[in-house]
Amino acid sequence: MEDPRVDSVDLAVIGGGITGLGVARLAARHGLSVALFERGDLAAGASSASSHMLHGGLRYLEHGHFALVRESLAERGDLLRMAPALARPARFVVPFYRGDRRPPWMMRLGLAFYDALAGRRNLAPHSAVRPAEALALEPGLAREDLRGAGLYTDVVMDDARLAIAVALDAAARGAKLHTWTEVTAARPAGDGGLEVIARDRLDGTERRVVARVLVNAAGAWADAVRTRLKRALEPGSADPPALLRPTRGVHLVYPALTRGHGITAFAPSDGRVFFVVPFGAHSLVGTTETEVASGADDSAWRTSAEEVRYLRAALRRVLPGPSGQAPLAVFAGVRPLLASSGDIDAAPREHLVLEEGALLTVVGGKYTGFRIMARDVVRRLLPRFGRTADALADPVEVLPALPPDGTEPARLAAWAAKDGFARTLEDVIRRRSLLWLTPDRGRVAAPVVAAALAEALGWDATRTSAALQEFHARLEDEERMLVDTREAR
């Protein structure tokens, strides 16, 4: 007899980043019942800490990842149509300096190849300009040894809110999304399925589901989740080998550093590509690539002073005047790169889907390709439910809309709690809005948001006060680190 307290679903997904949300959305679109579990907020990991670009990956051409670039450029165009309020084309300037490790002719060739791989989906053709023209476009560029610049177009997007839009689409099609809920155990169930036990990290309640298939889409923590599941499902067996070689990427947030262009340039210390990405009234500067241990704890997300100094030095080389401004914020994410040998900068950006009975693990990939990864997973799922892979369809349709920028904080918080899966103050300010980018970093709005969340979620005065204290403490810790690294220049 079935336990009435246990839900039965076709698919359980671990991980509420863009990959897990993409899988949940596409599976639900194909009529599968889905339960998704995320130990924090949706998109709280790398999916809200990217370079905020939908792109093919110009720098991947250097390492021969041509197929990845081509399919990512196709996805770039589709996602631009799916999220018109959250993504827009932006023109990027690639300054050429005497002494660069990559000469101008090589960069022009790369830009031409990038256009060619985009084909009919190209947003605008690349071009090249002389030094005076480059300075006319962006007067803040360093003038000494400037030899000209290339121009190309990519897409800038709001990564966190795009992920929330995907979540809304998944939920609209029947997927059940459980945030701040950590899967703690799994065990075999009847008919070859798995019973999944999860604990709500905010209220301590337990939830159980029986799923015919369990998808591990835990991003940089997929190895740790897979090891824990394998130990539970196959007691006494050896731990599986790591699938990942994660790296931490750090970004600084500045008031606008350019006249609206993005900048693609090379760090003077090691020649790595870094970006200045125009994001509304701000510029995002990144990224670093620091290897971290697979399965590391949450400290792997913590930005180091060395990474901040690295980015500041890279920025000073290209934009010496504008770089004198103090950064407003810093954020970091851990990329779930596939395990490889050699230089980490050349590590593959492709993805992998591993089937182990009722457990599927999806790792690797990049934000722009989340629909590609979802299709690969669902293509493998459909035959398990008596469907052929030929039935797979993923039409380009506009995603559900979020409240627009400028929505009054109380109304925004009420929506976020009722319909947007938010359960904490940080969820609303950092991932449902752009309040984290206001000059006060959301401090003025925080009490209003907290009061609205308290009303919607039933918080008492103690819980509301604790939420505000936690929010302010996190900001103060971040700002203290930025001040310390600035003073140590």
Structural class: alpha+beta
Helix content: 25-40%
**What is the CATH superfamily of the largest domain?**
FAD/NAD(P)-binding domain
> What letter string, H or E per element, gives the SSE order?
EHEEHEHEHEHEEEEHEEEEEHEEEHHHHH
Number of strands: 18
Please work out how many helical segments DSSP would assign.
Answer: 12
Number of domains: 3
Quaternary form: single chain
Shape: globular
Strand content: 15-25%
- Terminal residue distance: 68 Å
Radius of gyration: 23 Å
Can you identify the CATH class of the largest domain? Alpha Beta
CATH A-level architecture of the largest domain? 3-Layer(bba) Sandwich
Report on this model:
It is a single chain. The radius of gyration is 23 Å and the shape is globular. It folds into three domains: 7-46 and 160-243 and 348-391, FAD/NAD(P)-binding domain; 88-156 and 244-342, 2-Layer Sandwich (D-Amino Acid Oxidase, Chain A, domain 2); 409-487, no CATH class. It has helices spanning 18-29, 66-82, 104-118, 131-137, 159-172, 222-233, 305-318, 370-381, 409-418, 425-431, 446-457, 461-487; strands at residues 7-14, 34-37, 53-54, 87-97, 127-129, 146-157, 176-178, 181-188, 194-200, 206-216, 247-255, 262-266, 273-279, 282-286, 290-291, 329-335, 351-356, 359-364. The mean pLDDT is 94. The longest helix is centred in the C-terminal third of the chain and has 27 residues, at 461-487. The chain has 489 residues and is an alpha+beta fold. A hairpin with a 5-residue loop joins strand 9 and strand 10. It has twelve helices and 18 strands. Strands 3, 4, 5, 6, 11, 12, 13, 14, 15 and 16 form a ten-stranded mixed beta sheet that branches. Strands 1, 2, 7, 8, 9, 10, 17 and 18 form an eight-stranded mixed beta sheet that branches. Helices cover 33% and strands 24% of the residues. The chain starts with 6 loop residues before the first strand and ends with a helix.
